[in-house]
Amino acid sequence: MLKRHVKCLGFDLGTTNSCVSTMANGVPTVLPMLDGSRTVPSVVGYLPLEARDTPLVGAEAERQALTNVKNTINASKRLIGRRFTDAEVKRAAKHVSYDIVQGPNGEAMINVPNLQKSISPIEVGSEVLKYIKLQVQQRPGLEVENKPHAVITCPAYFNNDQRRATELAGQLANLDVIRVLSEPTAAALLYNYNSTNNKIKENEIFVVIDAGGGTYDISIMECSGDGVYSVIATAGDGFLGGDDWDNGFVEYLIGDIAETFAQAEQDSSSARGALDIKSMKIAIMNAIRADPVMMYTLKLSAETAKKQFSEKVSAEIILPGFYDGKSYKKVITRDQFELLTAPLVARLIPPCKQALTDADLTPRDISKILYVGGTTRSLALQRKVSEFFKQKGLTTMNPDESVSLGAAVQGAILNHEVNSILLLDVAPLSLGLETLGGIFSPIIKRNATIPTRKTQTFTTSEDNQRSVKIKVFQGEREIASQNHYLGEFELDNLPPGPRGSLKIDISFEVDENGLIHVKAVDQDTGVQQSIKINNASLSQDTINEMLKTAAENKEADKREREIFEYSKELSGLITGLKEALQERSDLLSKDIIEKGNRLVAQGSDFLTDADDLARRRLIDLLELKKCRDRIHRLMLDIGKSLEGRTTSM
Q1: How far apart are CA 114 and CA 438, in angstroms?
Q2: Residue 77 designated active-site
Q3: How confident is the model at residue 84 (pLDDT cuts 50, 70, 90)?
Q4: Active-site residue, from 86, 127, 167, 183
Q5: How far apart are CA 454 and CA 433, in angstroms?
Q6: CB of 392 closer than 8 Å to CB of 403
Q7: CA dist 154 to 129, 274, 472, 540, 577, Å?
Q8: What is the DSSP code (8-state) at residue 394?
Q9: Which DSSP string do the residues of 558-581 spell out, in sequence order?
Q10: Residues 312 and 354 reside in one and the same domain
Q11: For residue 207, what are the CA distances in angstroms to 1, 154, 402?
Q12: Active site residue 217
C-alpha cells in the first residue's frame, strides 16, 4: 500500500480543543483521529502510576474526569508560560478543578496527586501534541516521521515566555518546531490561500475575529499586493473565550439550583418560615463550589447547552440526583442565556476600538470580517461585531479547524511546498533602551511589522568612558523606568576618549516567533555584546493597562521629555559658557562676566532639580526655556564681542 509522506504538521493547540492539519496535494487538509474526530479535547487525565504510566488524552480523559477531577487537567493553555502570581492565574484557579501551585522559579504549575508531584503546563501541552502526533502516525495511508516538522499556533498576544513555552511543549512531544504562529495570522493565511471569488484585493483592509475557548483576539490586516499580507494592528482580551461563557452560565446555574432546593426545603418544613432561606441558599452554593464532581458536571452541561443556542432557541438541562439525592431540571431560552452573558458580549468591542485607534482607521475602512474559533458561532457575538463594523462577517471557514489549516499552509510555505505568501505580525509595544537622563529611546516602534531589525547609533556621555550599560525596556512611556524592564547587559573594554567620540551601534531584532535580540557594537574596535530576551512576560491585560496608562499620562510624559531635552541643551550651553568665562575673562567686560556667572548658577540649579525626580516635577518649564535662551543669547554676544576684539588687533 502506497503511503503519502507528510512533511509538516500544523497544530492548533487550543485552550478547549486542538486540531492538526497538513498540506495534501496543495490542499490544506485536517487529519482526523483514529476514531474519526476532527478535533481533540485539550484535556489530560493522569492515573496512578501503578495503573498506567502514560496519561489519558482527549475524549478518553474527559470521560473519566468526573471520577478523577483532581488529576484531570483542562484549559492548561491559560497557565502556560505564566508566573504563579499573575492575575490571570488567580482568575483561572477559580474555574478549574485541579490545584495550581507555585513552582521553584515562581512559575505556575499544576499539582497532580496521582503522580505525587507538580507538573508544568508545558508538560500538559506536550501530552496533547504527542497524542495527536501518535494518532496521525498510526493512520493508514500516511507516513509521518518520528520527529516531523511542525507549526504550532498561539494567541496573537502571547508574550515571549508563552511563545517559548509553546515551542518547548512541541519539542517535548518530539516535534521539530519550525514556527510558532499567531492564530489570527494563521486564519488569514488560510482564507487568502483558499479564496477564489471573494479574494482579498490589493490595499484591502480586513479584520480577523478569533474567539476560542480561552482568548479573544482581533487583528486588522492589509493586503499590500505582491502576495504580502501584514498585520497592521492587534488587540484582544487574554481572558475572554468560550470557557468564560461557560463559567458565567455555571454561576447562574449554581444560584438557580441553590434557590430551587432552598425554596423546596422551606416549603417542606413543618415550621413554615422558621428556616432562613438565604442562609440555606448560601450553604448550598458553597457546597456545590467545594465539590469538584458537581462543578465538572455543571461545566459539561453548560457547554452542551451553549452549543445548542447556535441553532435552537432553547436548551434543557437535566441533572439526575445532583445535590443531596435531588434532581435538577431547567429549560433555558437563548434570550435568557444572552441576557446572562451580555457583560461578556460587551467586552468584545473595546479591543475592536483599540485596534482601530492604533491603526488610525474607522469601521468604514474595514472591507471584510473573518470569524475563527468555536466561540464565533455565537449569534450574539456575530450580532455585536456586525453592529460595530456595520457589516456581516464571513463564515465560509470552519471556525474550529481554520487555525490548524492555516498553520499547515504556513508549514508548506516554509518547506517550499507552495508559493510564499508573506504574513507579517506586529510588535504589541515599543522596544528600546534607557538613555541619558533616564529617557526611553524606542528603537522598534509599537505596531512595527515583524520580523524586523532596527539599528541606531549612540555615543558616550562622559570622558574616558570604558563601558556602557544597555538597559532594555518595553512600553510607551517617555521615562524608561515607567516601562516594562526586560533585561540589561554591559559593553565594556571601550577605548578611552572624550565624550561623544565613540560611536556604538545598538541593534534590536524581533524574530518570526516574536523573540527579542539586542546587540551593541563599538564601530571603531568591533567590540560587541548581546542579549536574548526570555522574560518579556506581559499578558494581554497588562499590555492593555500599559497602553491606557500611557494615554492618560501623555501630557505629563511630554513635559518630562521636554524638560530632559531643554536640560540637555542647557548643560551643553553652561559648559561652553563656563569655558568662555574662564579662558577669555581678560577679553570680556565686567557686566558680561557677572551676568554669565548668574546664568551659570541659575542654570546649574535647574540641572540639579532635573536630576531629582521629586524636584523635577516642580520645574517651571517656561522659566527653564527662558534660562536656556538667555545663556544662548549671551554666548552669541560673547562671540560677537570676541570677534570684534580679534578684528581690531
Answers
A1: 52
A2: yes
A3: very high
A4: 183
A5: 13
A6: no
A7: 13, 56, 25, 13, 58
A8: B
A9: HHHHHHHHHHHHHHHHHHHHHHHH
A10: no
A11: 45, 18, 15
A12: no
* 8 A C-beta contact, residue 122 and residue 150: no
Place of cell 483576539: 217
Tell me the three cell numbers of residue 587.
577679553
What are the phi and psi torsion angles at 342 (to 5°)? -55, -40
Active site residue 3: no
Cβ proximity of 82 and 93 under 8 Å = no
What length does the chain have? 649
Distance in angstroms (rounded) separating the CA atoms of residues 108 and 100: 7
The answer to whether the bond into 498 is cis (omega within 30° of 0) is no
pLDDT above 50 for 86: yes
Catalytic-labelled residue, pool 77, 130, 281, 519: 77
The pTM of this model reads 0.63
Same domain, 170 and 253: no
Catalytic-labelled residue, pool 12, 400, 434, 476: 12
Domain count, the chain: 4
What pLDDT does 228 receive? 63
Q: 86 an active-site residue? A: no
Pick from 228, 33, 224, 1: nearest CA to 137: 33
Domain range enclosing 624: 554-648
Going by their DSSP bridges, the two strands 72-74 and 43-45 should be labelled as antiparallel
Q: Which one of the listed residues 127, 167, 210, 425 is annotated catalytic?
A: 210
pLDDT at 614 over 70: no
Q: Last residue of a domain, which of 357, 391, 423?
A: 423
